[in-house]
Amino acid sequence: MPFSALIGGKVFCMHGGLSPILKNWNQIRQIRRPIDPPNPSIAIDLLWSDPETGIHGWKPNSRGVSYAFGADVVGAFCYRMDIDLIVRAHQVVQDGYEFFAKRKLVTIFSAPHYCGEFDNAAAVLTVDENLLCSFDVLRSTTTRIAISYA
Description:
- By secondary structure, this protein is α/β, with parallel strands linked by helices.
- It is built from 3 helices and 10 strands, in the order E-E-H-H-E-E-E-H-E-E-E-E-E.
- The protein has helices at 26-29, 42-48, 71-81, and strands at 4-7, 11-14, 50-51, 58-60, 67-69, 85-88, 97-100, 105-108, 122-127, 133-138.
- Strand 9 (122-127) and strand 10 form a beta hairpin.
- The mean pLDDT is 95.
């Protein structure tokens, strides 16, 4: 399974987030697979890092692995890598998708009513041939069934 994808040279996708040591696309291509990603590494960051409001730069992630990064990191990364959007998952978001860093990053979560504990929607992102992005939002429909043992 790939660590990331680059759509049309402008939309960068991964499970987790960015890495403070990622400076060019070749660094991702050079990751040997299969791998049990060491910490720290680009691979572990692509899987585990998270955006966080209210911080500047990088800080240790509260998950105990990888980093959390601020909106400034997203803006600088998009500029340096000449991309328009970062698409990632890895965190439950209430409406299925949630923007960050002036809409330069979006978190997509595709499991509605996650683990039966959250009242979140799910979202699917579609990117068309012109790189126009659209969302389909899905909500869980829970039906309670009463069973009588008469």
